[in-house]
Amino acid sequence: VAYTQIIGAVDSAIATSEFQTVVSPIDIYQPESGETKNITVRIKLTPLDRTLTNQEITDTVNGIIESVQSATNAHVI
Q: What is the dihedral of CA 72, 62, 9, 68, to 10 degrees?
């Protein structure tokens, strides 16, 4: 899975979000002898008018995870 596929799926999931968002790459790791790749991204959600609730954060993150898994057939660890 390419990094750009993951970012595209994240961007798609947060496109309708009412929050200001920033997606940043943190780490891409693939061992020399391995076939799997670990990609870590940081997603910053900033509401402009209030503090987010735990449920809003959970719902948003779950939506992002579902979008990435659907678009890339990847596994979130």
A: -10
